[in-house]
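To the wet lab folks,

You asked to see what we're planning to order before we commit. Fair enough. Below is the target structure as tokens, and below that is the sequence we designed to fit it. If anything looks off to you, flag it before the synthesis order goes out.
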């Protein structure tokens, strides 16, 4: 009923307002300047359209993150456009085990995905393979797949935008969380993470196979990106002078400048080592218990509270290429339901390779 009333109110607005509403819905938050460039409307028409949307209660505004002198306009979140859709973000091994036969069918309704480079040595029955760092990330870990690439790649694995997608990986679900974040970036409605990942599944006696499922290619139609969950370098630069919490989730050796890439991982090395100035530091593994699952809610809240990472402050998380920070983003955004959390997927491989960017390091081990 509320959705119908909202649609009726929108229909009563002038065409310019409807066009601006659609543009904000497709692209995400924008300034007056970027709206004018995107819509090709005059500044005066855009201002009028925004005023009408504001009066009708469709938009909210705040200083732009990249330039506090400008105003950023965004649609007010509602039950119909929020990522919070009432679907559980985390599922248990028992939940997956009960549905293995469904996952093993060539049916796009239920899709199980392994998101690492260990698929060939054994995976859960019915799981398809998505190697996110090799196939959905640009050179040297910088930049994610664009909408068209994502659609083609995911559709080739038998997934549609209406699929229930359950993702897991080795390494405490780091790569699974990265792929989960990417699905959410393209506004996939029903995507979930298997608690504990592949290692915990094996530890409790879960079935593993090397047989690859037969799948039929599907057509995947992605939604426009949900930019509120992604941070760019310009956002991080602006955050240094604002009330935004930046969280570095890498190892202590990386954070303090003793390593320029993660330990035990064959990832590209950054030109410099250290961390972004003023960042809070916690290692991503502090959110994982001894079994490889997420800690309970009470412990998770305590971990973040002790680091000054609070629900009422905008938060940006980063690591080396975005995979470890995505698992912390998952906890903050999906499990603890912080309001404003974004993943800086460029992370240290971008920041540490730039010239004249502020960097801090220390002698602490």
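Sequence we intend to order:
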């Amino acid at each position: 009923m509320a959705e119908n009333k909202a649609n009726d109110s929108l229909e009563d607005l002038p065409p310019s307002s409807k066009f601006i509403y659609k543009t904000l819905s497709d692209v995400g938050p924008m300034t007056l300047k970027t709206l004018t460039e995107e819509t090709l409307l005059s500044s005066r028409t855009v201002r009028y359209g925004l005023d009408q949307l504001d009066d009708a209660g469709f938009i909210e505004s705040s200083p732009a993150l990249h330039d506090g002198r400008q105003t950023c306009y965004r649609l007010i979140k509602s039950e119909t456009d929020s990522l919070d859709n009432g679907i559980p973000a985390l599922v248990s091994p028992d939940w997956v085990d009960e549905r293995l036969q469904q996952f093993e069918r060539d049916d796009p309704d239920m899709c199980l995905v392994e998101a690492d480079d260990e698929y060939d040595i054994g995976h859960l029955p019915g799981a398809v393979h998505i190697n996110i760092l090799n196939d959905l990330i640009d050179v040297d870990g910088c930049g994610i797949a664009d909408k068209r690439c994502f659609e083609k790649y995911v559709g080739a694995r038998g997934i549609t935008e209406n699929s229930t997608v359950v993702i897991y990986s080795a390494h405490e679900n780091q790569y699974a969380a990265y792929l989960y974040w990417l699905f959410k970036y393209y506004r996939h409605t029903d995507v979930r993470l298997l608690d504990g990942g592949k290692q915990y599944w094996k530890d409790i006696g879960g079935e593993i196979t090397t047989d690859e499922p037969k799948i039929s290619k599907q057509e995947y139609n992605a939604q426009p990106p949900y930019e509120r969950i992604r941070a760019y370098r310009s956002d991080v630069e602006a955050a240094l002078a604002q009330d935004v919490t930046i969280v570095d989730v890498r190892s202590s050796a990386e954070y303090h400048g003793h390593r320029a890439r993660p330990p035990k991982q064959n990832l590209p090395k950054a030109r410099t080592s250290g961390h972004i100035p003023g960042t809070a530091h916690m290692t991503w593994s502090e959110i994982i218990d001894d079994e490889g699952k997420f800690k309970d809610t009470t412990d998770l809240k305590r971990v973040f509270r002790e680091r000054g990472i609070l629900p009422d402050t905008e938060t940006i998380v980063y690591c080396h290429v975005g995979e470890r920070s995505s698992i912390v983003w998952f906890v903050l955004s999906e499990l603890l339901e912080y309001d404003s959390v974004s993943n800086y997927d460029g992370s240290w491989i971008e920041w540490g390779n730039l010239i004249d960017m502020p960097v801090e390091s220390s002698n602490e081990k």
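Structural context that might help your review: Residues 2-75 form a domain with the Arc Repressor Mutant, subunit A fold (CATH 1.10.10.10). The longest helix spans residues 15-27.

Thanks,
Computational group
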